[in-house]
Write the structure tokens for this entry.
Amino acid sequence: MSTELPREIRGVLVHVTGGRVLLPNATVAEVITFATPDKVANAPEWLLGRIAWRGWRLPLVSFSILAGFAAQERALNSRVAVLKALGGNPRMPFIAMATQGFPRLTTLSQDIIVPTGDENAHPPGVREQVLVRDDHAVIPDLDAIEAMVQEALAAAA
């Protein structure tokens, strides 16, 4: 029995300070209004703190600072994308990412996503740099980001 991959998938193009991030639609649990996070002592600059969401205290990541797109996060028009964590940690089933404005839903296929840039050198947290139609975007390395968040929270505890 052969398993055929889907020809198209739904994706979300998310604006972040200084760039765009392309995520699978199934990864995004919700987009909420930005609220000032509770700081985490001794955390790296990209870990903005923790925010409350549906009874959870989610770590809030600035992908822009982590990947080097920006030195600081913009507050104007900020939102938060709540992402399903992939690592299976029951204490951290979600992480939050600071975004700008609302994400844009898009249908993706192999001929729409074109890799750009160097295949070997990516900024922290970036799996791939791509062109989606006419938009430059990055595909984040969600596993690596999740591991970095867990490491930062453990070091801060």
